[in-house]
Amino acid sequence: MDVSTSEEPTTNPRHAASGRRELRSDDPVLSWAGVVEMEHTPEWSRGWRLPLRRIGLFPGDDLRFRAGMQAGVRVEFDTDARIVGGRAVPVSDDAETQIVDLVVDGRLAGSVPVGASGDFSFGELPAGEKSVELWLPQFGDFRLAAVEVDAAARVWPASPSRRPRLLTYGSSITQCRTAASPTRTWPAIVARELDLDLTCLGFAGECHLDPMVGRMIRDLPADVLVACLGINVYGQGTFTKRSFLPAMLGLLSTIRDGHPGVPLIVMSPIVSPERENTAGASGMSLAGMRAQVGEAVQLLREDGDKDIQLLDGLDVFGPGQAHMLGDGVHPNADGYAHMAGSITPVVRMAFAPAR
C-alpha cells in the first residue's frame, strides 16, 4: 500500500543543459521493492518496513525511526539509459557518508556516496536494455526525490519478481549499519547468492519480539524466514529468564500461523566476548540466552514443527571471528561478509526441498 499526498506522478525535466532528466520518485514506472508500505509526499518518497497506516500500533520512537530507514529497499526499473543517478532530500545528520548501490541485470555495477546536496550518479553504463536496481542506504534518514537518467533514455516498469521471498528479522546485526554498502549486508548477500527477493526487517536496537511485529511477519509473503533473536533483549532487559522463552515461543508460533511448512531458521546471538558469561540488563548472560533460543526451537520441533531449525550464532560468527567485531558487538564490513558466507549454505539447505 502507498501513503500518498502527491498529485499524479509525472516525469520532470532537469539539467537540460547536461542532457539528463529526472523521474519523480513516485513515478509509476519505478517499483519499490523490500518495503511493507510506501510513503509519498510532493517532495520525496521513502519505503517503510512497518505498516505506516497503522504505525500507532507499533509503539516506540526508535522502532518507528528505524522502520523508516531503507535497509534492503531498492528502486527497480528497466531502461536503456547510459547514465543512472538520483537525488535525495538532504535530511540525515549521520556522521558517516551514505552509500547507494547500482545493480544491473542482477550484478553489482557500482557503489557511490550520496553528496551533501543529496545527489548521486553512476558512470556510463553499457548500451542496450537492462534491468536496474538502486539499493538505498541501509541506515540513516534517506528520502528519495528523483531518479535521473540521460534525456534520450527510455524507462519502463520492471517485470514483477518471480523469485522466492526471503524475510529476515533481527537487530542492528541484521540491519548491518557498518556493512560496506547496501548490497553487502548479510541479508542482501544471502538473497543475491540464492536469487531470492529480500525483505529485511532488521531494526537496530529494536528487536524485542514485539507481538505486533510478529503479526505483521505472519501476514507478509515469505518462502523462507530467518529470525535473529536475543542481543537487544540482553542489552535492554526486555525480558527475564522467566519471560524470554515464553516470548520467543509466542512470536515464533505467531509467525508459523501465517507460514505453515515454510522453512523458519532461528539464529541465536553471535559472539560478543565481554557478554558471554556476564549478566546483562536481562539478568542473563549471552551464553544463557543462546541456550534459551535453542530450547525454544527444540520445544517447537517436539510439538510438531519440523520446518523450524536452530542456527547457532557461534557457528555463524564465533570466537575465531571476534577480531572482526568493531565495538565488541557489531561486525565490521568483513564480519558481515563472513556472516553471509556462514548463513547462505544453511538457507540453501533449508530451502532446497521446497524449490
TrEMBL record:
Coiled coil: none annotated. Gene3D superfamilies: Galactose-binding domain-like, SGNH hydrolase. Residues 1-13 have a biased composition (Polar residues). Residues 166-348 form the SGNH hydrolase-type esterase domain. Residues 1-22 are annotated as: Disordered. It holds the Pfam family Lipase_GDSL_3. Residues 30-144 form the SsfX3-like N-terminal domain. This is GDSL family lipase.
